[in-house]
Amino acid sequence: MFEIVKIGFLSISFLDLIDILLVTFIFYKVYTIIRATIAAQIFYGLIIVLILSFLAQEANFKALGWLLRLLTDIWVIAFVILFQPEIRRLLVFVGKNPIFRMFIKSDESNLADVITETAFELAQHQHGALIVIVKSVGIRHIVETGELINAKVTKNLLRSIFFPHSPLHDGAVIIMNDTIEAARCTLPLSSEPTKIGRPLGMRHRAGLGISEQADVVCVIVSEETGSISVAEDGHMKTGLSKEGLRNYLTNSLTDTKEKGLKGISQMFKRKKIFSDLE
Questions:
Q1: What are phi and psi of 224, to 5 degrees?
Q2: Domain boundaries along the sequence of the chain
């Protein structure tokens, strides 16, 4: 195996480095989930018991080693019972991770349907809307300008947010991984006052502006005309039909998934190259 560092009899290969990084990441995520909770104190206690058990075996303390071994034999069951809420939160985190979501059934088509149905129902009532769908890297600095929601995307929730008398209807909704992260968010305005030969309102300039600065798809519903537009990569399409919007969102979100899979494929190819250097 391709060696990175060798100190005496100790050698560290590329796979060893990946292994260490993965274990470090897992321990870090576990720590961030259980810190400042009672479970953290229990977790520290279990670690101390494991360390004492190891030391007792090395020192050949038979009685103490037997006692501690009884505890370590049931620590897995105790861990599951004591940390049930934390394990559930960890599994939710894993399920929401984009890398793992690439290997399970995707909800892109469902998300496209929900956004499309919501946009056209809002357009029929001429209720303005600004919906930002994050494709890859999150836009936390934008999320922090609004009100945190952290709820699953549904048509009724979006319609409630953009209802004119709702305190959250001004600003944009940020959606990532089928979750509404925040509402009433402030977006950067595009420097272009016109597009496709027509002047842009503040809502359209905001949608175009965020598409110029981040990898997102922005759906804009005009309050004045009820027309629906989409902004992506600094470009804007206006006057979309219902099927046109659905097809656009489905294709755009599917392309994002395929890019992610392509990146993972390239990573495994690089790994194979390192393996061939043995």
A1: -80, -45
A2: 3-101, 108-253
Give the largest CA-CA distance in the chain. 86
- pTM summary value: 0.56
* Structure confidence by residue, pLDDT tens digits, 158-192: 999 999 988 998 899 999 888 999 999 999 888 87
Beta strands at 147-152 and 179-185: parallel, antiparallel or unpaired: antiparallel
Find tokens 């002047």 and name the residue.
Answer: 199
Residues in the chain: 278
Q: Compute φ and ψ for 237, nearest 5 degrees.
A: -115, 135
| CA end-to-end span of the chain | 5
pLDDT tens digits, 52-99: 877 877 788 878 777 777 766 666 676 677 666 666 666 656 655 555
Name which CATH class applies to 108-253.
Answer: alpha beta
